[in-house]
Structures are given as structure tokens and as C-alpha cells.
Amino acid sequence: MKTGLKTATFAAALAATFGTAYGVGQAVDPVVQDRPQTHEARHPSGEREHGGAHAAVAAGGLQISEDGYTLDLETPAVTAGQRAELRFTVRDADGRPVTEYRREHDKELHLIVASRDLVTYRHLHPVRAADGTWSTRTDLPRAGGYRVFADFTPDRRGAENLTLGADLAASGPYTPQDLPRPAATAHVDGYDVELTGTLRPGRAGELRLTVSRDGRPVTDLQPYLGAYGHLVALRAGDLAYLHVHPEGAPGDGSTEPGPHVTFTATAPSGGSYRLFLDFKHDGVVRTAAFTVEAGGTAAEQPRPSTSAGHGDTPEHSDDHGH
């Protein structure tokens, strides 16, 4: 894809973005789900998601409705570079707003917004009103297509963890960008994060991320969402969503607060993936991003990376002012 600036209108930007995403999405293997996933299949370690070898087998976010629940996203008029309010409701099979959720990883619901080219990434924690409407403000720095993911578990008997996805677009001059190349190290706000390990299609693989600053290991990471790191993986093309968590947990007597954060993850298919690691240090949550190929290690193709988001500052909507 050429990266020259296109002074396209809003409609043209939409056509270029979703047309490209559709074409790429057809080239990768789909995630086949013949029947609803059990909680054990989605989270093999059950209630001990932060302990032991946690492997996320199934990918989510490809559907707006699943298991009787639907993501009802109010489509706002979003202009690139300007803050906008995102509002949405999760509805049950009868169309009623869901108002009761299980708290998982310190939150009732996690909202991820990613651009179709996987360059821009936002991890947000919206606020829920009494009527079940969720809302949060964010900015989308560049024009084009985005995917919104709602990761949650309804607090109802038999309900499973779900990730539902919906499309969003930002208007403005559209500049398509290539997927960043694989690199073993990401740089964000003076921190270096090194990735080692293998993401394998259909098989569990270990991913280790090592955080350092000014050449020194960071050994006092702070808990964030109940762990020392939070990892989201998105498959290039269709943006299939993998939400995994590290081995161990703060306060378990064996997990050190850095410099290493280790995950066990399984890719649903071969192909390119973008990994986003959230970590907290000195009271600030930062995001380091990597591109990896399922079946190979990032270290096998070392290339210098520039920043966590190649020009975009990761944003968080939580109690820490991000």
C-alpha cells in the first residue's frame, strides 16, 4: 500500500479503509466457532487466569453479536484529531440493556479501540450509567477505519466472557500506513521493552517482555488491572482479538515486579499480529507495541522500532489521568 497523502473526503476514506481491510481479511484463516465457547476454552486456567500457563485459544471481536449479546454502538460524528464521546450499550437476547457485570481484572468492561492498520491503539475504561449506557471520551488521531472491542462478562448464571466488535470511522484527510515491521524492541517514553518468545498457530507459546529504562532493568513495576502487565493481540487483516494475561500475579509470593512479564498465548492461525503491552511504572501506564509473525520469534527479524505507536501516544481511560 502506498503511503502518499490522499486528500479524500469522508466517504472515500471509508471506502479505502474498509475495502483494504476486507481484502486482507479474506487472505487469512477465519476463526471457526462451531459452538459457543466454554469458559474453560476461552480461559483455560479458569479462575486462575493470572497463575499457571494461561493460553488464549479462541479469538474474539469478529462479531457484533454472540451468545445472545449485542454491542449497540452509537455512531458519533468523529473527526480525526478531535476528542469525541463514544457511547454504547450491551444488550441481551431480548434487547434489554445489560446492567450487571462481573468485575474482571479490576473492571466491569474493557474497551479497546484500534485502527484498521493497527498503528493507533487505545485501551479505555468507560463509565456505565444506571440505564446500562457506557460512555468515554477519546481522540482518534488519524482519519480512516477503526474497530471497537468490548471485553466483558455479564453477571448472570451461565454467562461467559465475551469480546464483541463494531466498526467506527474518523473523517479527514486519509493517509494509509503499512503495518510496522517486526522488531525485538519497542521504545516508549524513555523505556525499552524487549520481546522474546514465539507466537504459534494452534500451539501455546511463551512470550516474555522485559522492561528497562536508561539501560537498567525495571524491578518495581506497579500492578495494573491486577497484574504487572496487560497484553492484547490483534491479527492483521480482520483484527481477530486475543486477550491474554501474564503468568503469576502481584502478591502471590512468587511473581516479581519486573523486569520480566511472561505470557502464554496461542494464535488462532498463522499470519501477522500486533501485540500491545500495557505496563505501569512511577504511577503512569504506558503501552509498548510489537509486530510478530505467528510461527516465528520477533528476535529472528530484529529491526529498530521508533515508538510504541509509531507517532501515536497510547491513551488510557482510568484513575491515573491517561
Would you write up a description of this structure?
By secondary structure, the chain is mostly beta strands. It has helices at 10-25, 39-42, and strands at residues 65-66, 69-74, 78-79, 83-91, 109-115, 121-124, 127-128, 133-139, 144-152, 162-171, 185-188, 191-197, 205-213, 216-217, 230-235, 241-244, 260-265, 271-281, 284-294, 315-316. The protein has a 6-stranded mixed sheet with strand order 3-10-9-5-6-20. The protein has a 5-stranded antiparallel sheet with strand order 1-2-4-8-7, with no helix packed on it. Strand 15 (230-235) and strand 16 form a beta hairpin. The longest helix has 16 residues, at 10-25. It is globular and about 50 Å long.
Ordered list of secondary-structure elements with their pairings:
Blueprint lengths: L9 H16 L13 H4 L22 E2 L2 E6 L3 E2 L3 E9 L17 E7 L5 E4 L2 E2 L4 E7 L4 E9 L9 E10 L13 E4 L2 E7 L7 E9 L2 E2 L12 E6 L5 E4 L15 E6 L5 E11 L2 E11 L20 E2 L6
Parallel strand pairs: 3-10, 6-20
Antiparallel strand pairs: 1-2, 2-4, 4-8, 5-6, 5-9, 7-8, 9-10, 11-12, 12-13, 13-14, 13-17, 15-16, 15-18, 18-19
Residue fraction in strands: 35-45%
Whole-number mean pLDDT: 80
Total count of helical runs of at least 4 residues: 2
Any idea what the shape is? globular
pLDDT below 50 for ≥5 consecutive residues: which ranges? 1-56, 296-322
**What is the spatial order of strands in the main beta sheet?**
3-10-9-5-6-20
Quickly give the structural class.
Answer: mainly beta
H/E element order: HHEEEEEEEEEEEEEEEEEEEE
Let me know the largest β-sheet. 6 strands, mixed
What percent of residues adopt helix (DSSP H or I)? under 10%
Over all CA atoms, what is the radius of gyration?
Answer: 19 Å
Number of DSSP E strands: 20
Distance between the termini: 32 Å
